[in-house]
């Protein structure tokens, strides 16, 4: 009896082995057919992983700025790429460049993310995917009112502590009391954007300077906006080369220039006047941009090493009282000057710009152009703008006439140490379609003269432009 059972058991084992072999063959056939079907239906899966990785990088939203990438939400890349298929998930996780931009905006985060401190695990996973590469981080409480309080402060503190050693570019828009109270080590930080919450009418006061960024040996660029004041922050100001401030007081502007002797490029957008602003001279600044109403800063500044000046001025009752002296103090070394051509920046101020090579004038009126052309004609003013090589007249009425041709021709060749004009551009804006199709008669005097200038090597562009 037992012998018969053993025989039967052996037969069953043999059948199992045969069935498993047949099942393996069928499964192999299925995988082969599925692979062939995938190659037909999903040809992208046949691409090498390196190419797929590059395609993934192009899926990142917001090409114009790293701070327009909304990466926490589940539907944009790169998080969405993790949920397509196993192959894509593997490639996405194995592509560190996908994870070098992180944006955390409080309004986008679910409550459980803060209350359960889910962000700790999330940040750990994100950091692992970066694989040691420098990171760009935006952390903001934008439009989140009232003050989100302790959970948000813990999120900010933990995020900065966890990622500080990896951050190269940092954008913070948070409440002043959310900054960590002690200095953090930012060995890679080079660009810093700081602002407070938007749309708030509250005036922020900081009793003690914020020390968070005092240990940032590579910090070079700072941009302050939304009521963030330079004097609120302890920074390695001496090593900065670029600064931009929006709605900063005139006293704070002077503070920045005084604290940052290595500054090369500086922008002040809509500064406002405060009493007791000291007169400030910066000996190293090369590039300066100013957009203001009135003469908030002109009366307080001297920039003797300036090479590039771009100003946008709005109406003021002061006229040229402070504009002209400022330009006179800062014009001898100018190489590029850009400004709206108006009575606030009169033509005569150009006479002091003896090294100027690039001149851009926006929305000049006909009367202004007539005076400018007279200045440019070397037969009239031999010494004016001797180094000028590029002239751009933007958003003006079409101004193409014999005096202009005469002035351009007088600068078509280098003469006795005077540079030749290499490029002339004139563009205009108009709702009148007839002006959009403005044409120069190629057989007329002006057309022939322009062609000769172009044949001799001057780059000439004339025509309608749109904003």
UniProtKB/TrEMBL annotation:
<feature type="coiled-coil region">
    <location>
        <begin position="9"/>
        <end position="36"/>
    </location>
</feature>
<protein>
    <recommendedName>
        <fullName>F-box domain-containing protein</fullName>
    </recommendedName>
</protein>
<keyword id="KW-0175">Coiled coil</keyword>
């Amino acid at each position: 009896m037992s012998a018969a059972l053993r025989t039967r058991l052996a037969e069953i084992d043999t059948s199992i082995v045969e069935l498993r072999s047949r099942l393996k063959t069928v499964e192999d056939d299925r995988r082969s057919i599925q692979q062939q079907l995938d190659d037909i239906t999903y040809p992208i899966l046949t691409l090498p992983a390196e190419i797929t990785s590059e395609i993934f990088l192009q899926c990142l939203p917001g090409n114009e700025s790293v701070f327009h990438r909304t990466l926490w939400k589940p539907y944009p890349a790169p998080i969405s790429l993790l949920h397509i298929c196993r192959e894509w998930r593997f490639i996405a996780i194995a592509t560190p460049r996908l994870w070098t931009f992180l944006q955390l905006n409080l309004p986008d985060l679910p409550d459980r993310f803060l209350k359960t401190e889910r962000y700790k695990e999330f940040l750990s996973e994100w950091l692992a995917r970066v694989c040691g590469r420098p990171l760009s981080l935006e952390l903001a409480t934008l439009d989140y009112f009232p003050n989100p309080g302790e959970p948000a402060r813990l999120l900010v503190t933990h995020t900065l502590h966890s990622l500080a050693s990896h951050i190269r570019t940092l954008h913070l828009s948070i409440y002043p009391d959310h900054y960590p109270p002690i200095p953090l080590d930012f060995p890679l930080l080079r660009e810093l954007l700081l602002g407070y919450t938007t749309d708030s009418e509250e005036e922020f006061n900081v009793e003690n300077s914020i020390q968070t960024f005092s240990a940032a040996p590579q910090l070079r660029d700072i941009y302050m906006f939304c009521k963030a004041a330079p004097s609120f922050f302890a920074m390695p100001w001496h090593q900065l080369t670029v600064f931009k401030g929006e709605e900063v007081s005139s006293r704070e502007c002077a503070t920045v220039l005084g604290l940052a002797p290595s500054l090369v490029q500086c922008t002040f957008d809509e500064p406002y006047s405060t009493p007791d602003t000291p007169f400030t001279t910066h000996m190293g600044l090369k590039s300066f941009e100013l957009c203001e109403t009135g003469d908030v800063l002109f009366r307080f500044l001297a920039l003797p090493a300036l090479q590039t000046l771009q100003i946008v001025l709005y109406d003021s009752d002061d006229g040229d009282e402070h504009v002209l002296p400022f330009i006179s103090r800062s014009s001898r070394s100018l190489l590029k000057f850009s400004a709206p051509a108006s009575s606030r920046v009169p033509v005569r101020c150009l006479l002091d710009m003896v090294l100027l090579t690039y001149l851009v004038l926006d929305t000049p009126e006909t009367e202004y152009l007539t005076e400018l052309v007279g200045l440019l004609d070397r037969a009239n003013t031999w010494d004016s703008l001797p180094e000028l090589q590029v002239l751009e007249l933007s958003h003006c009425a079409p101004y193409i006439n014999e005096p202009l041709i005469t002035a351009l021709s007088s600068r078509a060749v280098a003469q006795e140490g005077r540079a030749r004009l290499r490029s002339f551009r004139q563009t205009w804006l108009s709702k009148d379609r007839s002006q959009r199709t403005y044409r120069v008669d190629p057989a007329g005097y002006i057309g022939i003269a322009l062609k000769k200038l172009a044949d001799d090597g001057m780059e000439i562009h004339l025509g309608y432009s749109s904003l």
